[in-house]
Amino acid sequence: HSNRTAISAAAAAIGLPWNVLPNLILPHYANEAALYVGWGTLFLALYGALRWWRAEGLFWLGLACAALLLSLGGHSPTFLLFQHLGFGLVRDQSRAVFLSTFAIATLAAHGFASACAHKSGHIALTLTAVLTTAGPFLVDALARAGDRLAKDHPDGTQFVRLFVMLLLFLSLTRLHQWLPFLKKIMLPPLLLTILLTFDVMAVNWNNNITPVPQPPSDGLPSTIAYLQSLPKPFRIATDGNSLIPANDLGNYALETDQGYNDFRTAAIQDLLNSPNQWRVWQILNVKEFLTTRTFGPPFTLQHTEGSVHTYAISGTLPRAWAIWQYRVIPNNAQARAIVLSQSFNPGETVILNHAPALSIPALPQHQQQITVRDIGAEQTNVSVTVDQPAILVLSQIAYPGWQVTIDGHSAPILEADGALQAVAIPAGSHLVTFRFAPRSATVGILTSVISCCLATIILSITLPWVAFRARLSPVLPPSSSPPH
Fold first, then answer.
1. Beta-bridge partners for 323
2. For residues 138 and 284, what is the distance between their CA atoms, to the nearest angstrom?
3. Which residues share a beta bridge with 208?
4. Inter-residue contact 344 to 400 (CB < 8 Å)
5. Coil, strand or helix: which one is 336?
6. Strands 414-416 and 420-425, how do they pair?
7. CA dihedral sign of residues 409, 414, 420, 425
8. Which of 96, 118, 181, 294 is 20 to 30 A from 346 (CA-CA)?
9. Beta-carbon count within 10 A of 368 CB
10. How many CA atoms lie within 13 A of 24 on its CB side?
11. What is the DSSP letter of 390?
């Protein structure tokens, strides 16, 4: 239902170019810090895959290679296969490189443990240190040779790496002979751990760290104060996001026609992209307009701050209104096209996705009393008084999971004008409640509760039995070898 259900092939194919892949082993190369694992870690990963081959090593190696290919997106011919497997619906394939670095780290951890556990592992540990230290020097050599991707990313930590590597080398050869007590603290693995940690952290420690943003001020304090003083509910339109972002208005509890974010339903996106902006403002309850331009009727200048003018808009519809004439058009896209036509009047006629269960007399617009009592993210209450059965239209996005009750009794919810909510109400005074209560959430909660109950029951049965069997286990005879 969202505006992102259909994306272009170009957006789906975004990935890492081939020429940045050396950043896997070269620090600060091509400015792709998320790729970096280093020569040493990659060597340990291959060592771990060989030692772990018959268990899970092949799986992790395959995952690393497949995810790396996927992260290339359209730069790799294999994306055609991934695209038909569903990845054509996902943007920015380069994010999949996380799976590669995670799989490599898993294999490297196993390789590191295997090298520490075997007598011949000191060769692998030494080679890991040498390879890790070589990376920065190679980047420096490439930069001096004129490699554009290696330039402007100097690595001033290569000498620290070299120093740690030398300590490691000495600890593997002579330090154990000079200082026998160092055997107890496993100095070589400890130093290599420090080296590998330092190597990765020096390249990527601040990859996702940005300065703390300042609270929004937007330079329009009196405009915002004026808008906050107006009786609600109403929505605001702005003459472009550069004037004041819709998200910033949301921070001040002010509703906009754009919503709080650009992630919205496709139906609303169609309306917002329409050239008939006036009609969109009509049905979306837009009462105020911020712009740097000058307008006449139906715009009334209310406030000016610097070059920004705030206009009140007359003629737009309220948040909720009653209506007595309707047409039934099941196709929502067709319904929106009719609503956006110049000849349509949304204040007198409503387009419904199916006929209401209640008989509605075809009357012209007349007396009605409607008060939107409160609006929340999951519930909106509306007090309604009408002298004849009518259709109540609420300027709120129609989305699966919304339910409606009239005086506490459930009623069928309708889709109005291809994007909004509506319900047929009988004559008289009523409290109409629109509530977001999707059945999928209820099923999920029940599934979680049942799973927790079953897990508790299974543990309560099995744990005492395991403890009972442990008490019955025979005591092993003492070892015949002499005590140490």
1. 391
2. 60
3. none
4. no
5. helix
6. antiparallel
7. negative
8. 294
9. 17
10. 21
11. E
In the sheet that holds 235-238, the strands lie side by side as: 235-238, 286-291, 308-313, 299-305
**Positive/negative CA dihedral, 224, 227, 233, 238:** negative
- Helix and strand tally (H, E) in the chain? 15, 15
- pLDDT tens digits for 362-394? 999 988 999 998 898 899 999 999 999 999 999
Tokens of 377: 């993210």
- Closest CA relative to residue 320, chosen from 435, 434, 436, 438: 434
Give the separation between CA 458 and CA 465, rounded to whole angstroms. Answer: 11
Cα angle for residues 112, 118, 120 (degrees, 5° grid): 100
Burial label, 198 (beta-carbon count in 10 A; 0-12, 13-18, 19+)? middle
The number of angstroms, rounded, from the C-alpha of 293 to the middle of its chain's C-alpha atoms is: 36
DSSP string computed for 137-162: HHHHHHHHTT-GGGTT---TTHHHHH
- C-alpha angle 392-397-401 in degrees, rounded to nearest 5: 95
**What's residue 463's pLDDT?**
77
The pLDDT value recorded for residue 104 is 96
- Distance (Å, whole) CA 301 – CA 370: 27
Q: For 216-259, how does the pLDDT look when each residue is reduced to its tens digit (9 = 90+)?
A: 556 788 999 999 999 999 999 998 777 887 778 888 889 999 88
CA separation for the pair 372, 382 (Å, rounded): 4
Counting every residue written for the chain, the total comes to 484
pLDDT band for position 184 (cuts 50, 70, 90):
low
Interval 304-314 mean pLDDT = 93
What is the Cα–Cα distance from 282 to 269, expressed in whole angstroms? 16
Q: Which two tokens stand for residue 149?
A: 């991707």
Q: Return d(Cα 94, Cα 35) in angstroms, integer.
A: 10
| Assessment of whether the complete model's pTM goes beyond 0.85 | no
Name the most confidently modeled range: 113-127, 152-166, 406-420: 406-420
The type of residue at 273 is: N
Non-local (6+) Cβ contacts of 371 within 8 A are 382, 383
DSSP lists the bridge partners of residue 370 as 384
Concatenated DSSP letters for 106-128?
HHHHHHHHHHHHSTTHHHHHHHH
The rounded distance, in Å, linking the Cα atoms of 375 and 295 is 31
